[in-house]
Design brief:
- The protein is α+β, with helices and mostly antiparallel strands and 380 residues long.
- The chain contains 11 helices and 16 strands.
- It has helices at residues 25-32, 35-40, 49-66, 114-129, 144-152, 212-219, 222-227, 237-252, 298-311, 333-341, 371-378, and strands at residues 10-11, 16-18, 69-77, 83-95, 98-105, 134-140, 156-161, 174-180, 197-198, 203-205, 257-262, 269-279, 282-289, 323-329, 345-355, 361-370.
- An 8-stranded mixed sheet has the order 1-2-3-4-5-6-8-7, sandwiched between helices. Strands 9-10-11-12-13-14-16-15 form an 8-stranded mixed sheet, sandwiched between helices.
- The chain starts with 9 loop residues before the first strand and ends with a helix.
């Protein structure tokens, strides 16, 4: 195919895919020196106008003429009102009617749905005009923005491939997903959002990388490790980052969601309350507190807030479950009291079912709360 003559223009009105143009160079540089682009893509470090010129006049054109990669420039209106280059989206030929999806957005348009629209336009063109059978998507594990676009456009996630992608000589784990031509473009799972919630004493917000130090302090604490023996020993910064990524994976698959329980004044992490399992039997809740936040009512307040979110209907942004439950070690009266403070009923005992950090077997007490019971408690 001839570049740029044979490059079609695709649009939904607000977002347009077109051939790249030399005039895009300044915006390409803006995108490629952005920290998010540097972190998650393999753009050359110290990106310059010369790099952008080579990309626009040689790399892009070569992909079209050889058929190796069909790359489109995204054009949309920036927040300032000017309509200009907003990123690149492409299909890389993998042979036998298969292609790899790749994309990168200009920082000015991230979070506005531009890339989701652009990817859908490209996929429509690829399946119809190029007669593609299947498209695959790869991203470094942890690239939440890219994963969300793949999720929104109907890809089915296939898990994690260890040490696969080449990222400037390093080999991080990779997320992978695929989309068949007959698949719908609707999300295949329910992504459990993490809305900001407000309790009487605390704010519940999404976990962030800035919480890693406090997570290490909390999860490395002797008492925490005693009652949560599955935690790594010693607990490191790498373990904290792994925990954060795993939370994203669980949320995107609709299986779990967690909140940072934060001080409303300083935003410091005080505890974590989450729903590690959401299923037909209800929502299981778990929690732990940073050592300096214990015995302050922090976890009780946070649990009450998450319970409210779990029982509220989906039309009001809640999870719309009928039952919440949790487990507490028989030797952990503080954890049990948090449940009782929130109206949970002790409804069972699993004898000798868990081993604690010292290797001893302990009974686990099961507590639950039904929505109808909670509604009675909530009435004035």
């Amino acid at each position: 195919m001839r570049f740029p003559d044979d490059v079609p223009t695709l649009t939904d009105g607000g977002v347009t895919l077109r051939a790249h143009d030399p005039g895009d160079a300044p915006a390409v540089v803006e995108q490629c020196v952005d920290p998010v682009s540097i972190r998650w893509t393999t753009v050359p470090l110290g990106y310059t106008l010369a790099d952008a010129s080579e990309f626009l006049t040689s790399s892009i054109a070569g992909g079209w003429t050889s058929g190796r990669e069909f790359a489109f420039a995204i054009e949309t209106t920036h927040p300032g009102g000017d309509r200009r280059f907003s990123g690149t989206v492409s299909l890389r030929d993998e042979g036998h009617r298969r292609a790899e999806l790749a994309f990168g957005a200009h920082p000015a348009v991230r979070g506005r749905g531009v890339m989701t629209t652009a990817v859908n336009l490209l996929l429509d063109w690829g399946f119809k005009t190029q007669d593609l059978e299947t498209v695959i998507w790869w991203a470094n594990r942890g690239n939440v923005g890219s994963r969300r676009v793949a999720w929104k456009t109907g890809f089915t996630f296939g898990g994690t491939v260890r040490r696969w992608l080449d990222h400037r000589g390093e080999y991080p784990d990779a997320w992978v997903a695929s989309l068949h031509r007959d698949d719908s473009r609707e999300p295949k799972t329910r992504w459990l959002e993490t809305p900001q919630l407000h309790g009487e004493r605390v704010t519940l917000r999404p976990l962030a990388e800035a919480d890693a130090v406090r997570i290490v302090e909390g999860c490395g604490d002797q008492r925490t490790q005693h009652f949560l023996p599955f935690l790594p020993r010693p607990y490191t910064g790498g373990d904290a980052l792994e925990y954060l990524v795993r939370n994203v994976e669980e949320a995107s698959l609709g299986s779990g969601v967690s909140w940072a329980v934060a001080d409303p004044n300083t935003d410091a992490l005080l505890a974590v309350v989450g729903i590690p399992r959401l299923g037909r039997s209800g929502a299981e809740i778990g929690y732990w507190a940073h050592p300096d936040a214990r015995s302050r009512g922090v976890v009780s307040d946070a649990l009450a807030t998450v319970v409210r979110h779990a029982f509220v209907g989906a039309d009001a942004g809640g999870l719309d479950v009928e039952r919440v439950f949790l487990k507490a070690a028989a030797s952990n009266p503080a954890s049990q009291q948090v449940a009782r403070n929130n109206g949970f009923t002790e409804c069972g005992r699993e004898r000798g079912s868990e081993r604690l950090g010292d290797g001893s077997a302990v009974d686990m007490l099961l507590f639950d709360l039904l929505r109808e019971e909670w509604e009675i408690r909530e009435k004035p």
